[in-house]
Automatic annotation (TrEMBL), chains A, B:
Cofactor(s) required for function per UniProt: Mn(2+); Mg(2+)
Function: Catalyzes the oxidation of 3-carboxy-2-hydroxy-4-methylpentanoate (3-isopropylmalate) to 3-carboxy-4-methyl-2-oxopentanoate. The product decarboxylates to 4-methyl-2 oxopentanoate.
GO biological process: L-leucine biosynthetic process
Source taxon at top rank: Bacteria
Originating organism: Paenibacillus bovis
Protein name per Swiss-Prot or TrEMBL: 3-isopropylmalate dehydrogenase
Length: 356, 356
């Protein structure tokens, strides 16, 4: 049989707990659908700093590179926040993106029925919101040259934002293709009235747009996009933007759904390789107590099935199992109205496994 | 008597209409409070492109530099959107900021009672929201070197983000001082986990913080801030941040109040000099029809009185006149529930003048 190899990075905080539940789901799909998965665990983030002296050990990179996909829990925590740059979990995150060539970050922002009320937006504004932010992930100001120097006005710092047409084309094509599979609307976000990189961005998007005549393209300035997401979230389908803007807008979009604790994300490279992780963080305050909600991680696994492996049958099965469990009223503490009836992380995982 | 000189820039779209009402208010305060104002009009933005071939004519700069303050209506419109960079209104805006040394942009985001319902946020979330974004306005990626070049992967574009300690200290001190006059809470927003300029920003803010022991300081990452503004807007008092982040966050903050059409802003330089303008744009679609709401521009004048001239008595009088007129149920079309009863721009201006 075709054995798929998955690198599993549990990470920090609630990472190990939520990843454990996703692994149970993985095993269940082997039984039900006859797949074969080989998993290999690797250290990353804070725990790797503690155990190996670096957030991204060589061995972890090797494990990821030899895998077909990576499942990541969460990384970081206050313990490492004051470390020097090389010894911080974020540095590992930027490193793994670059080393694995994960140039595209997909952040679907959807509203879960049972969490509609959790949004701070009025329900009638949120109605119908289902958007996807496609964020460029290995270019721009994140990866350009950085320096400190003495200037005429004291110490100064410099960050450089660079984009070339190849990078822009690659992410734009992906966004157009994703839009073709959805509601066929693409908003390309830039700051072309100020930035040279944005002008190249816009020119490049416009140049390839005729190849996707079925997709309705609009250009939106980043400041305006931050407003329109609030004013008319349901009017967006796919949003494509550069790294820094994508960081800000994807988090804004996720928060406005009210469902941030349940959202999955994918970081993709060339071919079908991808790294999948929940949008939520490592939540160190509730770590190790069995309180974490494993659904976003399990949905990240479903996204992996669909996107990297083309196992859409299993992806559908996982997603509908989750929907069913939620419909039956089962909740972990973060989403429970009556906290006294809340399920533990493993109880929620078991119910989902049983529902597949 | 002490004659104050005000440069008046009507600009494009609804700019001339709303500025005319603010000028009527200006004259009324001369009568009531015995002030003397000398106003000089200047061309700027689209109209300056049309009449002088440049968005920021030398003459306009001269008028502004010889004034104590500048009142600006609005600039821009589709007519100039496809012009080359030097012939675009935005280029004038960036130029005037740099030439007049307007390093600080104050964007108060408050909720008007009569517009509470206009927000897409739930009223209980919005309750108590009253924040001020202090945006650095003459540094960062807006003004750093920009270039195009041929690289290994085709054409590439570069933007440079630069900050020195002097620039950061200046804006940070102003933000601390503003916080001292408000609820004494300051959120400094950066991306210190990725950007070198942000690390210098955070170090500098931390270094001067002990001089403002009465202000409670927190550091918030920009992506998190975009989320927290949505989740708990009322918990913010003053937010200070660099140019690009400030562009995005100040618009997000303005939009969430639901009152964006009524918000004023100030751009300040060294000393008491300042440029005051409404947050809303030039609204070319309704220009020349007497439909525009002049309140944001009149509030910008009140902000000028308070901030540049120290005329707080008159500023208070203007603000309470506006409150009274609104309380009595008077509305322009943009904020009217019953559009058939909406007042024109001049009717609203006249009512406010009469109420002072
Ligand atoms: C931790 C940080 C470096 C990272 C980013 O800015 O990309 C995070 O905010 C994210 O969005 O994954
Ligand atoms: C028009 C544009 C250059 C400007 C900016 O980005 O500063 C505008 O968005 C603003 O916020 O005043």
């Amino acid at each position: 049989a075709d054995v798929k190899k998955i690198a599993v990075i549990a990470g920090d905080g609630i990472g190990p707990e939520v990843v454990a539940e996703a692994e149970k789901v993985l095993r269940k799909t082997e039984e039900v659908f006859g797949y074969s998965f080989e998993t290999e665990h690797a250290l990353f983030g804070g725990i790797a700093i503690d155990e190996k002296g670096t957030p991204l050990p060589e061995e972890t990179l090797r494990v990821c590179k030899s895998a077909d996909a990576v499942l990541l829990g969460a990384v970081g925590g206050p313990k490492w926040d004051n470390n020097s740059k090389e010894l911080r979990p974020e540095t590992g995150l930027l490193g793994i993106r670059k080393e694995l060539g994960l140039f595209s970050n997909l952040r679907p922002a959807v509203v879960f029925d049972c969490l509609k009320e959790a949004s701070t937006l009025k329900p009638e504004v949120l109605e119908g919101t289902d958007l996807m932010v496609v964020r460029e992930l290995t270019g721009g100001i994140y990866f350009g040259d950085k320096l400190r120097r003495q200037g005429a006005h004291g110490e100064e710092a410099v960050d450089t934002c660079v984009y070339n047409v190849t990078e822009i084309e690659r992410i734009a094509r992906q966004a157009f293709e994703i839009a073709q599979g959805r509601r066929k609307k693409l908003a390309s976000v830039d700051k072309a009235n100020v930035l040279e990189t944005s002008r190249l961005w816009r020119e490049t998007v416009n140049r390839i747009a005729p190849e996707y005549p079925d997709v309705e393209l609009e250009h939106v300035l980043v400041d305006n996009c931050a407003m329109q997401l609030l004013r008319r979230p349901s009017s967006f389908d796919v949003i494509v933007t550069e790294n820094m803007f994508g960081d800000i807008l994807s988090d804004e979009a996720a928060m406005l759904t009210g469902s941030i604790g349940m959202l999955a994300s994918a970081s993709l490279g060339e071919g079908s390789f991808g790294l999948y992780e929940p949008v939520h963080g490592s939540a160190p305050d509730i770590a190790g107590q069995g309180l974490a909600n494993p659904i976003a991680t399990i949905l990240s696994l479903a996204l992996m099935f669909r996107t990297t492996f083309g196992y859409s049958e299993a992806a559908d099965a996982i997603e509908s199992a989750i929907a069913r469990v939620l419909d039956e009223g089962h909740r972990t503490a973060d989403i429970a109205v009556d906290k006294s009836k809340a399920l533990s992380t493993t109880q929620m995982g078991d119910l989902i496994v049983a529902a597949i």
